[in-house]
Amino acid sequence: MNPTENRTLLMSGVGIVAAAILVVALVSGGSDTSTSPNDSTSTSSSSLVDSSLVDIEPVTTVPGTDSSIAPATDPVDITGEEPTSDEPCVLTVRSLAGGDTGPSVTCLQEALIVAGFLNSAATGVYDNATATAVEKLQTDRDLYVDGKTGRETALSLGVWPDEASLVIHTPPPAPGAVDLLGYELSSVATSGPDTPPLPPNSGSGRRLVYERAGQRIWAVGEDNVVIRSWLVSGSKYNNETPGSHAVYSRSDVSTAWNGKAFLYKMVRWLKTDIGAIGFHALPIHRSDNTPYQTDAELGTRLSGGCQRQANLDADFTWDFAQIGTPVIVI
User: Fold this and answer.
1) Assessment of whether the complete model's pTM goes beyond 0.70
2) Per the record, a Pfam family (predicted)?
3) Average pLDDT over the chain, rounded to whole?
């Protein structure tokens, strides 16, 4: 082989070696082989994206949010009230006493525990411990002490149902408006289409119907047509016995059992240990002849037993409810 051919062969070999080195460099990307993939000094992912690629959809972030934090749970509606298991309970019966059982007793016991009067667990049984706790509460809060739970005790514990929601207030009648018998209507009385419907199971024939929950009386004629209906202020206590009664006594004017009030046009339908219960006009203080309440307060339980009426309604009741008139109490 002559010198010229040797030089040509040598140059070809150098070229092949150089090409091989270039290929290795391109494959390795020029990176430092001593750096692991998890090393904190590794190249950022953004530098690996070729800026010439324009058909990649960019990642967008909603203003005010962090797209790097995935929600832990499904989205929830936060515009409503937050659900809670701590909703206060209310009694579903009007009174509780020794031996009673059920959810209302449990509700009472839970309230007594929260108030600090009962140290044992709620069992749903009105036992001696519950009665003793009720007596402690009644003594502490200056209520009538008998160990039984009625309206005043339940109100004191916040477990008496909302009474206002059960009272229907009808629009005041026009001045001088009268009922089906021609008697003038009070500001809390109604007659005709505005009259709330009679409660179910309220008897038949000519009668008075008194619904304690709604603090309302209906006067019904022989044909079962409502003549008139009006709001009253009934008893704060559990002494208005439900059932069928009848008017048994009447007085133009009477005196309250404590001697502090005059009760005009008293129509009695129930006897109790301390006196009679009946319908009458707004009571008047004996000391200064002022009324105990206003017509606007009718529909609220304010009396000790009787049903207080606006004077115009008392006038009607006095004429309508003669001795023997049925009184249905619900």
Assistant:
1) no
2) YkuD
3) 80
